[in-house]
Amino acid sequence: MNKIFMSGNHAFAESAIRAGCRCYFGYPITPQNELGEYMAANIRKAGGVFIQSESEIAAINMTIGSAATGTRVMTSSSSPGISLKQEGLSFLAGFELPAVIVNVMRGGPGLGNIAPAQGDYFQATRGGGHGDYRMPVFAPGTVQEIADITFLAFDVADKYRTPVMILGDGMMGQTKEPVVFPEPIGELPVKEWALRSMGDGPSKYLASLILDPAAMERHNWKLYRKYKEIERNEVRYESYMIDDADVVVIAYGTTARIAKSAIKRVRDDGIRAGLIRPITLWPFPKQILQELARKIKQFIVFEMSTGQMLEDVQLSILGKADISFYGRPGGVVPTPLELARYIYRECQNKKELDYET
Amino acid sequence: MKLKNEWPKHYKREVITHYCPGCGHGVVHRIVAELLEEMDLGKKTIGVNPAGCAVLAYKYFDFDMIEAAHGRGTALATGIKRSRPDLFVLSYQGDGDLAAIGTAETIHSASRGELFTVIFINNAVYGMTGGQMAPTTLKGQKTTTSPDGRNPKYEGYPLHITDIVATFPGVAYAERVAIKSPASIIKAKKAIKNAFQTQVDGLGYSIIEVLSACPTNWKMSPVDSMKWINDVLEKEFPLGVLTDKRKGNS
Amino acid sequence: MDKIKKKECKVIVKSENCKGCYLCVEFCKPGALKVSKNLNKMGYYYVEPNEEKSCNGCTACAIVCPDLVIEVYGE
Fold this sequence. Notes:
The complex is a heterotrimer. By secondary structure, chain A is α/β, with parallel strands linked by helices. In chain A, helix 7 links the parallel strand 6 (137-138) and strand 7 (163-169). In chain A, the strands form 3 sheets. Chain A has a 7-stranded mixed β-sheet with strand order 3-2-4-5-7-6-13, with helices on both faces. The relative contact order of chain A is 0.13. Chain A has 13 helices and 15 strands. Chain A folds into 2 domains: 4-233, 3-Layer(aba) Sandwich (Rossmann fold), CATH 3.40.50; 238-356, 3-Layer(aba) Sandwich (Rossmann fold), CATH 3.40.50. In chain A, helix 1 runs parallel beside helix 2 and helix 1 packs across helix 7 (143-160). Chain A is 43% helix and 19% strand. Chain B is of the alpha/beta class. Chain B has a single domain, classed as Rossmann fold. Helices cover 36% and strands 19% of the residues of chain B. Chain B is built from 9 helices and 10 strands. Chain B has helices spanning 24-38, 73-83, 95-101, 103-111, 152-155, 161-165, 182-200, 215-218, 222-236; strands at 2-3, 45-49, 64-67, 88-94, 117-122, 125-126, 132-133, 171-178, 205-211, 240-244. In chain B, strand 8 (171-178), helix 7 and strand 9 form a beta-alpha-beta unit. In chain B, helix 1 (24-38) packs across helix 7 and helix 3 (95-101) crosses helix 4 (103-111). The radius of gyration of chain B is 17 Å and the shape is globular. In chain B, 60% of the residues are buried. Chain C is an alpha+beta fold. Chain C has a single domain (10-73), classed as Alpha-Beta Plaits (2-Layer Sandwich), CATH 3.30.70. In chain C, the strands form 2 sheets. Chain C has a two-stranded antiparallel ribbon. A two-stranded antiparallel ribbon of chain C has the order 2-3. In chain C, strand 2 (33-39) and strand 3 (45-49) form a beta hairpin. The longest helix of chain C has 5 residues, at 23-27. In chain C, 37% of the residues are buried. Classes of the chains: A alpha/beta, B alpha/beta, C alpha+beta. Chain A binds chain B through residues 22-23, 25, 49, 51, 53-55, 57-59, 61-69, 71, 73, 87-88, 91, 95, 195-200, 203-209, and chain B through 42-46, 48, 55-56, 58, 61-69, 72, 75-84, 87-88, 104-105, 107-108, 112. Strand 9 (205-206) of chain A pairs parallel with strand 3 of chain B.
C-alpha cells in the first residue's frame, strides 16, 4: 500500500469509504468543508450516496434514517453545526443506531471563529444532547491516526450499536501528512436488527418513545450496561516518555503534538516529563492516570480551552497528585516553547514548595 | 353472506388506538393499510411516524416503521430511501410537524424530488399537546394559544405548504383531500393510491394533504366536525389535485 | 307470483371497541344503526344495529368508522 500525502479532512472521508461507509450527509461549514467535498467527488464511485442537506439538523436525521436500514453512514460538521446535531445524537443513542459523526472543532462559543480549538470537549463527552446517554469519542493525533481511527470508529459503532464521534480540530483537518490507508473492507455482516421491510416475516419498529417509566428505566439501564462494557473494552491512549517521568502532561489531538515537542525541549533541560495522550476521550483513560498518580505527584493538563478535559483528569486522580492547567482558548494555537516554559516553571515551583515543606 | 370489509393485513388485528372518538387518523391509517395490501407494497415498506398524535402509529400499522424527531420525518425518509431505493417509503406527518418545525425538511425533500410519499394530516391545530395554534390554523379560529381567534395582525396567516411544494419540478403528485363523508373518504383513498403509484413508478415526490377532524380540540362533536371541514376548513384549503405529472397528466 | 328476493345484508358492531363517535349512525342512509343505552368497558355509549331498520350493505358505516369496529356482511 502506497503512502499518500493528504489532509486530515480528506483522510476522514477516504477512510470512511474504505470502511464501507455508503451514505454521507452534511452541510458546509469551515473548517471541515474538504471532508464533504471529498465525499461528493468519491463516494458515488463506491456505489454510495452523497447529499448536501439543507441543514445540519436534516443531515443528522438523514443519518438516522440511513443507519436504521443497516447502512454504514457518516455525517460531519464543525462546532456550531455539531450543536445543531445534538437532538439527533440523542435519538441515535435512544434508538441504538450506529453512525460516525466527525467534529472538526473551531473557536467558540457562538459563531466563534474558524481557528482550531478544543472547546467542545464537554459537549462531546458529556452528551450534548438530552437524556441519559454516553457516546464513544475518539481524538486522533495525526492524519495517519485519522485514517486508522475512522476505520475503527465504524466497527465500534456497529459492535455496540451506538453513535461514535471523532473529535478533530481545524489544524488537524487542514494539516497534510503522508498516510497509509487500510485496505477497503469487504462484505459486512448483516445487521439483524436493521429495518429491511417485513417481507414474509413479522414487522419491526424503532422507537425512542417509551411512555411507561418502568420500561424507560429498563431501557436506560440496558444502555448503562452497554456503556460499562464500552468503558471496559474500548479505552485507548498513548504513553510517551512515561517510564522515568516525574511530571506527566495530559493532552489530546493537536495539543498532544505540541506537548511532545515541549517535552523534548524540557528534557534537554533535565526535566523528566512524559505524556499521556487519551485517544478515547470517552471512555476516558482513568485507570492509567490512577496508576501513575501512585508514584508521580505532578500532572499538567494542556488544552486549547479554558480547562475541560481537566475535570476528567481531576476525577481520575481524585486529589492524589497535584494537577495544574495550561490552556489557550478561542482559536489561539499555543507554541511548544510556551508550553515548555510552563512545564519548566511548574516544576521549579513544585521543587521550591517541596523544599519548604 | 360474506364479509365485505376484511380487516386490512397491514393493520394490527383488533387494535384499539389511543385516538379520540371521531379522529381522522384512524380512517387514514385504515386507508393506508388497505392500499399497501391492495397494491402489494406493505411487505417492502418502511414507514416513518412523527412526533405528534400519530407517534404511536407503529403500534397500529403492521409494516416496518421508525419514529422521527418532531419535524424530521422527511429527512429520515430521505436517508431510508437513498439507502434502500428498492423499498417503498412513507412519511406520515401532522401540520405542526410538517409545516412548522419541519418546514425546511418538507420544502427541501420536495425540492430534491425525493422518491417517497408524504401523508400530511392537516387538522389546523396541535392535537397531542392540547390544541395550540398550528401554522394551518384558520383566521379567527380559537385555539389555546390564540384564545381570541387567530388574528393575522399578531399571528399571521394559515400556511398553504402543499400548494407551495406542488409548484416544484421534483414534486410529481400533490392532492388535497378530506375525511368528512363516505364519498370523500373513497376519494382520499384514490388520491393516496395515485401518490403511492407515483412512488412505485419513480416519478418524483408525492404528497397528499388530508383535512382531518380533531373533534376534541375543535370542541365539537365528531358529526359537527365533519360539517366544519366541509363548510369552513375547505374554504381556506380547497380540495383537489395540485399537481399531477403522471403520464398523460403533465 | 314470486316475491322479489330482498338482498340479505347484516351489520355487526364490535361494541367493546366502539368509541361512540356516531359517524356511522350519521352516514347510514337506511338508519340501520343506533346508539345503545348501555356503556361499554371504555365508558362509551356504543353503537348497535337498529333492529327496526334493515342494512342495505353499502358499507358507508365501515368506511367512516375510525376504529374499524364495524363488519358488514352481504352478497
